[in-house]
Design a protein that fits this description.
The structure is a single chain. The protein is elongated, with a radius of gyration of 20 Å. Strand 3, helix 1 (49-66) and strand 4 form a beta-alpha-beta unit. It has a 5-stranded mixed β-sheet, covered by helices on one side. A 3-stranded antiparallel β-sheet has the order 8-10-9, with no helix packed on it. By secondary structure, it is an alpha+beta fold. It has helices spanning 49-66, 80-93, 115-119, 159-175, 197-205, 225-231; strands at 18-22, 25-29, 37-42, 70-76, 108-110, 134-139, 145-151, 189-190, 211-215, 218-221. Bound molecules: benzoic acid.
């Protein structure tokens, strides 16, 4: 039977709902995660090297994500027993880059039917018709998809960037600001663009002195790392 390939959900959409069997029992997604941020991610296959390096990294960073009120949920189109066997192998046998005895305690969805993978556009037939690509959905506490990143089979994810995205989304929400290229906590943030000629003039005259304006439409202000960190996880 040919796989059905759906359009992928987009930024601003409600995360499509599903019930699934996982290595931590059945989950109802996203209802079970109301009030939390979620990183829902797919990987191509169990017992493969890039995926193994990624799972060990996700598991090693799980507490850092939890400190950001963020839960991890993984998926591949393999079956439950394959998932269990792979996670046991990771814990018992694999030592990689200083990580060893790594226990994956976040849920890993079995998706043999490819139901969830199709629903989330994780199957991209130009790359593979049998394996999900490395999709990452960032879902907010109201179940809205706020960002998504796709990687191909051969390239492992950048975990520093995954964490930066969560921190950036929470910062943009908490402080009603936008964040410039390569922003990190402690860097200047972008204030909403002037909405009237008067405000544009005021900003260029720099009446308040709190803003740095590169032009009337591009003004930044300071936001300390401490202030950012005091709101993270909210
Ligand atoms: C990997 O995780 O190593 C992998 C999975 C599927 C295709 C290529 C690499």
């Amino acid at each position: 039977m040919e796989n059905q390939v759906n359009a992928m959900p987009r930024i601003g959409d409600l995360a499509p709902a599903f019930q699934a069997v996982t290595t931590q029992g059945t989950i109802n997604f996203p209802a079970d995660y109301k009030g939390k941020w979620v990183i829902l991610f797919s990987h191509p296959a169990d017992f493969t090297p890039v995926c193994t390096s990624e799972f060990m990294t996700f598991a090693s960073m799980q507490k850092e994500f939890e400190a950001l009120n963020t839960q991890l949920v993984g998926l591949s189109v393999d079956g439950l027993y394959s998932h269990i066997a792979w996670l046991r192998t990771i814990k018992e046998k694999i030592e990689y880059k200083g990580m060893k005895n790594v226990e994956v305690t976040f849920p890993l969805i079995e998706d043999i039917t490819m139901n969830v993978a199709n629903m989330y556009g994780m199957l991209q037939p130009g790359e593979s018709s049998t394996k999900a690509v490395r999709a990452v959905f960032f879902i907010d506490p109201k179940g809205v998809i706020r960002a998504l990143i796709y990687y191909p089979l051969a390239l492992g994810r950048n975990f520093d960037e995954l964490k930066r995205v969560i921190i950036g989304l929470q910062t943009a929400d908490n402080f009603s600001v936008a964040l410039p290229a390569d922003w990190r906590p402690g860097d200047d943030v972008i204030v909403p663009t002037a909405g009237s000629c008067g405000v544009a003039k005021e900003r260029m005259d720099n009446a308040s002195g709190e803003l740095t304006c590169y032009d009337w439409f591009f003004c930044t202000k300071k936001l300390s790392k401490d202030d950012v960190e005091s709101k993270l996880g909210k």
